[in-house]
TrEMBL record:
Gene3D superfamilies the UniProt entry points to: P-loop containing nucleotide triphosphate hydrolases
Organism, scientific name: uncultured Rubrobacteraceae bacterium
Record's keyword terms, sorted: ATP-binding, Kinase, Nucleotide-binding, Transferase
UniProt keyword Zinc-finger, yes or no: no
This protein's name: Tyrosine-protein kinase EpsD
Length: 232
């Protein structure tokens, strides 16, 4: 299931996935314990990525509410603070959170660009130096189909060329429904990304759901490069 990359302190935990309770700790308190934890995560992740070429990394979790969007956003910030040209993409098309974490709008975004076959780059926002954000945009009725289009593949290829790092936020592998079901979107993204970072919440993680997530990702050739324990 990939190497263990970092244990994040409890203060990193968001009150809920879209809130600013602990959201951008790397901006609000750059000298704090949480920011240092993210810098260690950055170093460990870069060490784990042996391929020197630009990498597109999917950040997801076995189940909902484990803090993956907060981890994705803060990892993007510390990469940009290190001078890396970083793109953070919200591919959680049915339940986006990154625009809330960064305090930006989501009037138009990735889904709108893909549906209209326009240039997604025209919709980039730049909340911080060296960091571009592509929000999710309008909620589509066919999110997994949009992510399987040639337009999205072309967008990802172009982003690999234009940025040092591309971080992709998605929905969790297992839905929050009862009984839980495997979500199509993160599986589609795992097949297209260069690696997968799994975020686990210490209070929620279960061995069965973790193994299910790893198997589902592996079934499409996804590469789990590491795991992060959040809310320890």
């Amino acid at each position: 299931m990939g190497r263990f990359l970092r244990k994040l302190p409890a203060r990193v935990r968001p009150g809920n996935e879209g809130s600013l309770d602990g959201g951008l700790a790397t901006v609000e308190d750059p000298a704090g314990m949480a920011s240092e934890a993210y810098r260690v995560l950055r170093a460990n992740l870069l060490h784990a990525l042996t391929d020197p070429s630009p990498r597109a990394i999917l950040v997801t979790s076995p189940g909902p509410g484990e803090g993956k969007s907060t981890v994705c956003a803060n990892l993007g910030v510390v990469l940009s603070q290190a001078g890396k040209r970083t793109l953070v993409v919200d591919c959680n098309l049915q339940g986006p959170h990154l625009h809330e974490i960064f305090g930006t709008h989501n009037s138009r975004g990735l889904s709108d660009a893909l549906a209209s076959e326009g240039d997604p780059g025209e919709l980039f926002q730049e909340p911080l130096r060296n960091l571009k954000l592509m929000t999710a945009g309008s909620v589509p009725h066919n999110p997994s189909e949009l992510l399987e289009t040639q337009g999205f593949a072309d967008f990802l290829d172009r982003s690999r060329r234009d940025f040092d790092h591309v971080l992709i936020d998605s929905s969790s592998v297992l839905s929050g429904s009862s009984p839980p079901r495997t979500s199509a979107e993160p599986i589609v993204l795992a097949a297209r990304a260069d690696g997968v970072l799994l975020v686990l919440n210490a209070g929620r993680a279960r061995e069965g759901t973790l193994r299910h997530a790893v198997r589902a990702i592996g079934a499409v050739g996804g590469n789990v490069v590491g795991t992060v324990l959040n809310d320890a």
